[in-house]
């Protein structure tokens, strides 16, 4: 079916872009053995599926299986009421106020990375290539360890860090999977529980890697939580460690996480927080290296703000909101290069999905909503939405990385699906 084509593209998104151009922002695809899937890039449809409809569109079975293999029983593998419980417990750790408290730490880590880069170029010379993505992965791992758990992985300094090494290769075969992978996944997705257990008894290389990560990250999480027990006043704190430890001790079933859930949650945070941020930053630096004028503008902006705080050498959090070039560069990079280009969901019940822009059916009839049966596979084309959305959101140059668009007045600010700030 089409599934193999869009998972084997040379440039991620090219096919979805072509399809949206041809058929509009919602269309049918054929999956393994001709199974139907609905792909949507329409803002109203995405809003309906992700935001307004709660658990009517849970993650697809295979996405949940991957999450379970990677993390165990954390938020990304949880469903329905369990997911709601996890989410309620974790939300305070992600409030704006809480995140602002990490600004100093993140600037310190950026300083450590800069020193490392200088050290490398001193030894290898300015012409030698540097694997920046690998180093960004290390710095974001240290950031999540220290901000989330008060634990120093020390991966910028320690080049043999085992967890950093595992994380570096974890999704190595995500790109261009072979046909057997689809068929095996298709069979697993439809197999009864006992048969799934039998299949899982013979893990693929990928499953072995995922399980190894789970084992190692849970062991690290156990160590982090043990270490934090004596040092943290976890009854009042809103950091990840405090939130998790409080939940583990809670008598209230609606606010409690078992020990396994706590460790799974920690393992989820380590991967979800680190890989996404590292990839996004890699794209930021890639685009800045291609756009020297914007690189100069962002450097000037940072230097200007820093010059106003010469003693501390550190930028206070309140300044970030006014750093227009920096914010525009980040937003534009998230738009152009989403780390999750497609989200895979499944309708938990019969439903009607509304559309912002009508599409024309194969019989030539314009429709403004799509009826879907329970069990319908729905692929949310984040990448295509970020490039097209409504025709006049991004304009003619939607395929160009142009941070300035964020400084101009948007034509339709009403629709904020928030594809890159979920
Ligand atoms: C640029 C950085 C990031 C990007 C692009 C990003 C992207 C995403 C996306 C697309 C999802 C939805 C996945 C789905 O519905 O299947 C998601 C969920 C999630 N992310 Fe991130 N993320 C980023 C940073 C982080 C960080 C720093 C953390 C934690 C420290 C984090 C933790 C999570 C968690 C726990 C979920 C699951 C939420 C839920 O199920 O309710 N993410 N992220």
UniProtKB/TrEMBL annotation:
**Coiled-coil segments:** none
Q: Which cofactor does it need?
A: heme
> What is one GO cellular-component annotation here?
membrane
Q: Which UniProt keywords apply?
A: Heme, Iron, Membrane, Metal-binding, Monooxygenase, Oxidoreductase, Transmembrane, Transmembrane helix
The UniProt GO MF terms for this protein read: heme binding; iron ion binding; monooxygenase activity; oxidoreductase activity, acting on paired donors, with incorporation or reduction of molecular oxygen
Q: In which pathway does it act?
A: Secondary metabolite biosynthesis; terpenoid biosynthesis
- Does the record carry Cell wall biogenesis/degradation as a key word? no
Where does the UniProt annotation locate this protein?
Membrane
Q: Pfam families recorded for this chain?
A: p450
Give the InterPro entries listed for this entry: Cyt_P450, Cyt_P450_E_grp-I, Cyt_P450_sf, Cytochrome_P450_monoxygenase
Major subcellular site: membrane
Q: Which PANTHER family match?
A: CYTOCHROME P450, CYTOCHROME P450 12A4, MITOCHONDRIAL-RELATED
Family stated for the protein in its record: Belongs to the cytochrome P450 family.
- What is the protein name for this chain? Cytochrome P450
Q: Which organism does this sequence originate in?
A: Cylindrobasidium torrendii FP15055 ss-10
Source lineage: Eukaryota, Fungi, Dikarya, Basidiomycota, Agaricomycotina
